[in-house]
Amino acid sequence: MKLLVLNGPSLNMLGIREPEHYGRETYADLEQKIRDYCAGRGHEVTLFQSNHEGALVDAIHQAYFDRVEGIVINPAAYTHTSVALLDAVKAVSIPTVEVHISKVEQREDFRQVSFIRAACIATITGLGTDGYLRAIDRLEEYYDHHR
Ligand code: DQA
Question: What is the CATH number of domain 2-146?
Fold first, then answer.
């Protein structure tokens, strides 16, 4: 598969930011883990992190023109605020999995809303950075059933 893995605001600060929620692995560690997993499974992967909502919207649109087959996205705080990211995923109709490193359902009330979820084939929370790998598994399963 041709995959795009997107990470939203402050995920560049992984390893430094609130390790009790997000662990001690850095963003570079996360990138390496995803690259190794994709290499082992024969997937082509592009990774992108931005702290800017519009840049994430642009990356989702570009995925359409690049014929990306699956998106894994941790929209971070934009999960709970962004209709723009929801609309972008709807616009491209690419199977997308929402990932959260922490168990968002056990955290503050304001984290209980996810706008993007309505456009996603699955949501994975609370598995740490392994959640990204499980999201890739979900995309594989999706294509096992939809080819
Ligand atoms: C997060 C959870 C969000 O509520 C938070 O704003 C983040 C990270 C997670 O990966 O657990 O930045 O998406």
Answer: 3.40.50.9100
